[in-house]
């Protein structure tokens, strides 16, 4: 994790500076930009300029209509359309609480998520940090024997599975909109060529292994990756925009009294498509 130099992302169109941000993301995995003043539209526009096509098939989108009118702008809040704190048993709140377990945004989609950009619009007067695990460092700390064992494996990721483990269940109709996706357990990140573990709470099973054995391995790997030596934490301030690479990190929200204090953040996640195609597509749309 690194704190970026002061810069107004709203007005940032310089291609060289955008490339510097991408390079810093390759190096650090998480960047913190303080003091931003972004409208909903400006947050979405910046995400497109930086990394292209956006993820919109979120779990929130199958539960209720987006209060911002754009499914690519995910509402990471405990507030409803009326501006009031959600009731304790509201399904939107129950779904959101699952963000407190280790996860990777959009790993249940294909293509999966690349960058997530979370913006603090309203924060509580108490700590409500976001914690990150460096999956590159976690992979590099594995034994050579275990690296060889997991190299050819693939994992089925399902948000239906992860929510079920938290006591939240989607209806059959909702589940049909969230079919899940399969990805390699170990990924090589272009730009650095470092390898990273790719797993989290959405990781339901290893395709090549029997269910009990595979789930135990996934559990062990998550426990390994979330040791203190691989973790960093961000304490939110109003106007923060935090960008992280879902291919190289896991993250989780730390708990606070969400039945008492409002917390409103918006997230945009880009899709892990070839970078050149993304940039060309974004330029064409702007034109």
Describe this structure in words.
This protein has 287 residues and is α+β, with helices and mostly antiparallel strands. The protein has nine helices and 14 strands. It has a single domain (2-286), classed as Clavaminate synthase-like (Double-stranded beta-helix, 4-Layer Sandwich). It has helices spanning 15-28, 40-51, 91-97, 135-140, 144-150, 159-165, 172-176, 211-225, 275-286; strands spanning 2-3, 30-33, 74-77, 113-122, 130-134, 154-157, 181-184, 186-188, 195-197, 203-206, 231-234, 241-245, 249-253, 264-271. It has a six-stranded mixed β-sheet with strand order 1-2-12-4-14-3, with helices on one face. It starts with a strand and ends with a helix.
Topology readout:
Layout: E1 2-3, H1 15-28, E2 30-33, H2 40-51, E3 74-77, H3 91-97, E4 113-122, E5 130-134, H4 135-140, H5 144-150, E6 154-157, H6 159-165, H7 172-176, E7 181-184, E8 186-188, E9 195-197, E10 203-206, H8 211-225, E11 231-234, E12 241-245, E13 249-253, E14 264-271, H9 275-286
Helix pairs in contact: 2-9
